[in-house]
Specification:
This is AsnC-like helix-turn-helix protein. With 95 residues, the chain is of the alpha+beta class. Strand 2 and strand 3 form a beta hairpin.
């Protein structure tokens, strides 16, 4: 599995639509709206490096409202935690 982190600058008026369209692309596992110099961060997970050449330039970059992207390919994961478990802290079973 190859993971890429894609920083996306988008037309500010279209961020929600851009995020939804990017999230619907095969290979995109998550899209986050963020603060700072970027508008969105997408996580792309594909089987092969060559698949990145399809997902990012042929699909993500062509979403209307995407102004630019910057892609970072992950070499190794040092932490794999269950995000759902983290968000359910403090909740009791059956509530």
């Amino acid at each position: 599995m190859v993971t890429a982190i894609v920083f996306i600058k988008a037309d500010v008026a279209r961020i929600p639509e851009v995020a939804e369209q990017v999230a619907a692309i095969d290979g995109v596992s998550e899209v986050y709206s963020v603060t700072g110099g970027l508008d969105l961060i997408a996580l792309v997970r594909v089987a092969r490096h060559d698949d990145l050449a399809t997902v990012i330039p042929e699909h993500v970059n062509r979403v209307p409202g995407v102004l630019s992207t910057e892609t970072h390919i992950a070499f190794r994961a040092y932490s794999s935690h269950d995000l759902e478990a983290a968000f359910s802290l403090g909740q009791e079973d059956g509530i």
